Amino acid sequence: MENDIAIEVNGICKSYKNANALTDITLKIHKGEIFGLIGPDGAGKTTLFRVLTTLTLPDSGSASVNGRDVIGEYGEVRRRIGYMPGHFALYQDLTVEENLNFYATLFGTTVAENYDTIKEIYSQIEMFKERHARNLSGGMKQKLALCCALVHKPEVLFLDEPTTGVDAVSRKEFWAMLKRIQESGVTIMVSTPYMDEATLCDRIALILDGKIIGQGSPEEIISGYPNPLFAAKGDNMFKILEILRSLDGVLNCSSFGSECHISTTHDGPDEFALAEALRAAGMQECRVNRISAGIEDCFIRLSQ
Description:
By secondary structure, the chain is of the alpha/beta class. It has two domains: about 1-220, P-loop containing nucleotide triphosphate hydrolases (Rossmann fold, 3-Layer(aba) Sandwich), CATH 3.40.50; about 230-304, Alpha-Beta Plaits. Helices cover about 30% and strands about 30% of the residues. The protein has ten helices and 14 strands. The chain has helices at about 45-50, 75-80, 95-105, 115-120, 140-150, 170-185, 220-225, 235-245, 270-280, 295-304, and strands spanning about 5-15, 20-30, 35-40, 60-65, 70, 80-85, 155-160, 185-190, 205-210, 210-215, 230-235, 250-255, 260-265, 285-290. The strands form three sheets. Strands 6-7-8-3-9-10 form a six-stranded mixed sheet, sandwiched between helices. Strands 2-1-4-5 form a four-stranded antiparallel sheet, covered by helices on one side. A four-stranded antiparallel sheet has the order 12-13-11-14, with helices on one face.
């Protein structure tokens, strides 16, 4: 149903000089869902967010937020959204309390009037309300920025790489907060370069070089992985990659932390044949197992 659409993007293109930042981006994001825009640095995530939050004009195409056109009705859009940019954009020389009051005033409201909206998050930093923003830790800055984005009760919340540079514990806490914000009926669009965060979203779009290369629920994207997939681990990963990439039937072999993932054709080598090839090449302490694909495996396949 069209009235269930919170964010609609149709054929958005944007370029800077001779570089294409966005090419024919088309998306539909449903009300009340957490939608993830997943991609590496430079993929176009921030440019799309700036278009949707009325900070940048597209070269072509159209977009709307809760039925309001981001160009023709930009004022209405701004009143109805919350935006947390990728860098800490609050005033460093203001205190926590002063920053929050300032943002509430911009939207014609007060912290007291909307305290229940931010109470759960603000209560974690309220004891530091007299501290200047520049003296906050990364996790505390993140919470303050989220409070400022929520203080006017937005209908749609845009979060551009909100967990970049934040420790693992704070990342986990942040996503738990997003789930609770979603329960209040707020639509959330979040971008991230972390593939593991994709599974925390209801639906996602994978973006690379300004183009959408896949979209759907995380389960749909993972279930669409078409090839057998294996993980290999050993002492000399550089040599393991070199050997496996030379084998017939190996489509891709990429590093994944302390191991590598190998995709093969359906009639290609299985885990036993891969392990035997490594042993024949003198790699005795190697282990190869069949595994299920993850979002990162799907991203690598779609990017090729």
